[in-house]
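Incident log, structure service

09:12 report received: a user says their structure output differs between two submissions of the same chain.
09:20 pulled the input from the user's history:
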Amino acid sequence: MSSNVSTHRLTRFVDLGQPRLGSRVVYATDEFFAEKIRLISPAEPVWIPDKYDDNGKWMDGWESRRKRTPGHDYCIVRLGVPGLIHGFDIDTRHFTGNYPPAASIDACVYDDDIPPDDMTWTEIVPRTDLVGDSRHFVDAKPGREFSHVRLNIYPDGGVARLRIYGSIRPDWHSMDLSQPVDLLAMKSGGRALACNDEHFGSMRNLNAPGRGINMGDGWETARRRVPGNDWVVMALGHPGHIEEIEIDTAHFKGNYPDRVMIRAGYMIEATDEEAVAASQQWPILLSEQKLKPDHQHIFKSLNGHDAVTHVLMNIYPDGGVSRLHIRGYPAGID
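09:34 re-ran on a clean worker, output below:
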């Protein structure tokens, strides 16, 4: 199976800093030229040549003024869901003569928005050189789960986006498991591994919280002009026994898939690449079903199965799906 998996391995993890998980930029030493809130905007950064505001050139990111005193600027992000951080994308796209020459990243655990001045921070990315108009993928030092991230820039300047790639590891023993839970949800630790096409919408939208807000907030492939069908492989946050599948085509009206089929496998020790390679041979969990436009489809008549760790969704022949929910009971939880 060929796929369009992003070239950098970090992008296979969840962006813990995305606002739809509840993450917020809670503090910046300075945001004179561009507001701190834009640092974690889910949209790709844009350049608008003739756009200015009262303070100067409008920039799509966070940008501090030119520092004339000792020290450096920094910005603090509070994660909506604490997680184990694997790495970052420090994105300086469109910042050319105003990007920071270097950056470092610290993290901490704190139960409120802004940690106090005497907070003990852990350096997880050492001081790293940056260049303008570029994406910088950097690994984080292995450690525990964190609730806050501090981006330090030296000495000042602008960063378009900060992506915080990590894993969410919920405490299953503290959950109410009397009813099925969505084992694929981001907050359950689920994630998208690979798909053959995501021309109009990212596969990483499929397990995001809530219903899609528009067609762009879902997974949508290009119009298929050759035989075959489109597909996506997802990893559950925990092995489980599936009770119900929901396929939501919200906002997809003239471009929803005609049919869908789901396979599932148990590959607890497999790498992502191994799971993707084996996925078309997994047993069928949901036999081929017709879909409707802009509709929440609930399927409870599933084929018998043992515990599963991954699902493959085949759509026929192409189109868009807003959300995929895989509800069931986690296996091995006392």
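09:41 both user submissions now match this output. Likely a transient worker issue. Closing.
09:42 reviewer note: Confidence is low (pLDDT under 50) at residues 1-5. The chain is about 0% helix and 40% strand.
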